[in-house]
Fold:
Amino acid sequence: MIANRFAELIRKVWKKTGKSVVILVDEYDKPILDHIDNTAKAEEMRDGLKNVYSVIKDSDRYIRFCFITGVSKFSRVSIFSDLNNLEDISMQPEMGTICGYTEKELTGTFHERLDWVNIDTLREWYNGYSFLGKERVYNPFDVLLFLKNRQYGNFWFESATPTFLIRLLQQNRFYLPHLEGIDVNESVISSYSIDQLTAETVLFQSGYLTIDTVMQVGPRRVFRLSFPNQEVKLSFTDAILAGYAPGIQAMAGFQNNLYRALESRDMDSVQQIFKSFFSSIPYEWYTAGNLDRYEGYYASVVYAFLASLGFDLHPEESASHGRADLVLKIDQTVYVMEFKVVEILGDGKKAIDQIREKGYHDSYIQAGKNVILVGIDFSKKERNIVGFAFETA
Structure:
């Protein structure tokens, strides 16, 4: 039995050296995460790990120090219930920078290699992670490979595939625009159980979202989560598109054409690109996942499509009389978008009327921006855009 061997190893090391033992465990949760989409197997791994880690408590008199790391924080009851002298330092502010490079560490340690680097761009790509410390940190894996290859790339993201997470988002009918900023309480980010996985917890603990701001709401702390940086946002929304709109062979072509059309304010092309994009999604995908019954699906796909292009997006942006579904900013141009899901044919004009009535665009007009109002009607029956209207405000 593994637990018995572990206990024996601790005792023999102590006896042979006459010194207390130091135990270092990396990726303690890997056996569980390897089977996270198979609940029965994951629970079997969890129970096995619980037996192993209980040895640490029973061997306390032989141990000087124990340090355990992992990607996920499973509830203490499920794995570490017998190890009640374990202190969790994951979110302690004084430990907030131990898992990444601070700006000072980066520029001090690698100054000889940074003479050709625009630090602002580097920060946009690889900084942004917050563990409640005094400052945000860079992803070390990304930084090292960036300096080696001398070009920006999705190095960390490409080291793993978030297939399970994307399936979880689909199963939970997660509204993807919320990835830009979702409020959760402390229990959501602190731990989770195998049989009660939430998308928000997995997104945070796996590194796809990080803490943007902390708010005090009465006696509780509320955390706003968002993407940490450009690498994660672009890569993750690309992966989401592949999961939510599978079978599209010319994805890069769609993305490049849409980027150019929005940059040049060519709204006729924007309309055609969106319609062609949705037409390219296989019929079987809708029926297999019952996505035609999920109203948030269409807005989620539009959001992921735009986010994968690196645009400055603001979902559900507040105005004096409500919230705009999506605001997109490109230099001095602002697109204010409203989506509707209809049973019959539409023309998009009711959505634009709502933008005007609620004044979603007023603040941008007052700021002297070039504002374009966009109304899009989606049909459950046609599974595509059936109404598209735009106006210059």
Remarks:
- The CA atoms of residues 142 and 156 lie 6 Å apart.
- Residues 39-58 form the longest helix (20 residues).
- The first strand starts at residue 21 and ends at 25.
